[in-house]
Amino acid sequence: MEWMRQLFEHYGDFVLFGGLFLESLAVPFPGELAMAFGGYMSSLGQMPVLQVMLMAYLGAIIGTTLTYGLGAKLGAPFFEKYGKYMLMHPKRISKIRSWMERYGSVVVLISHFIPGFRHFTGYVSGITGFRFRTFLFFNHTGAVAWVACYVWLGRLLGKRMEDVMHVLEKFGFWAVCGIAVLLAAFVLIKRAWQTSRDRARQLQDQSGS
């Protein structure tokens, strides 16, 4: 807890801006936790709350705007070939695209609040040719609400934020292990179900022929 406080005291602007920027590029970073801790630091008088919000907001919108440009410039063939190295598998791109076709601007507006979406919505918007001005409006508007929500959450928690951090430090390793086990079980079950479904389709095709 103390090391994180010192980190924010000395490099708070860089952590918030750089961290949220990198997260927007699909680089793993605990953006919500960083914003909440920044809000907590503002409650102690260590950082002005508007400064916390501004640095996080700028990092988020500059990052997502850059991803839109990359998506538009590189196009679908690039991400179909190399997207797996950025966790952008074809199925994920197709899923986000279908959501955007169904719900349009609403997806861009709320994507910051949906893990697994906000990291890729900019890329997919660029790939699909989503109107740039519309993307900017809804993306930037959604980012305002997202940043304000987590910064003020940390600020309102105040001293309780320390308890949250202590719990994370104490049980973080086991929580990660538990999540990893659950994910592994989910993948195995999904593969088994997919295999059984494929076999059922093969038998049906054979019986039909």
From TrEMBL:
Q: Which Pfam families does the entry link to?
A: VTT_dom
Residues that span the membrane, as ranges = 50-71, 135-153, 173-193
**InterPro entries named among the record's database cross-references:** DedA_domain (IPR051311), VTT_dom (IPR032816)
Keywords, comma-separated and alphabetical: Membrane, Transmembrane, Transmembrane helix
Q: Where is the VTT domain?
A: 29-155
Name the family: Belongs to the DedA family.
What is the protein name stated in its UniProt record?
Answer: DedA family protein
